[in-house]
Automatic annotation (TrEMBL):
Protein name: 5-hydroxyisourate hydrolase
Keyword field: Hydrolase, Purine metabolism
The keyword GTP-binding belongs to this UniProt entry's keyword annotation: no
Function: Catalyzes the hydrolysis of 5-hydroxyisourate (HIU) to 2-oxo-4-hydroxy-4-carboxy-5-ureidoimidazoline (OHCU).
UniProt domain Transthyretin/hydroxyisourate hydrolase: residue ranges: 1-107
The gene coding this protein: hiuH
Region entry Disordered, spans: 26-46
Amino acid sequence: MTGLSTHVLDATSGSPAVGVEVSLQDASGTELSSGRTDSDGRIGQVNDEPLVPGIYHLVFDTGNWFADNDVKGFYPEVDICFEVDDPDGHYHVPVLLSPFAYSTYRGS
């Protein structure tokens, strides 16, 4: 599988973060695609077009997700900047989210 996927987990409850809006942007901030996490907190294929080597941003609308879930959060948005170096590779960018912290890593 090639392309880009993501997964958001609510680290406070240990549950998938359902309904988080996610935007894929290029280095200049142009939106390339967008989606919303499903019932498992995932977007299996973020991009419609192949990713060429370069810098990209996955921007998670955490502010609205926190508000929709009656949680006072500190981060209104999480912007994960990453680099694609293999256009034939698969990139998985998960986020572990809580009201006052988040973490990410390159998944598989």
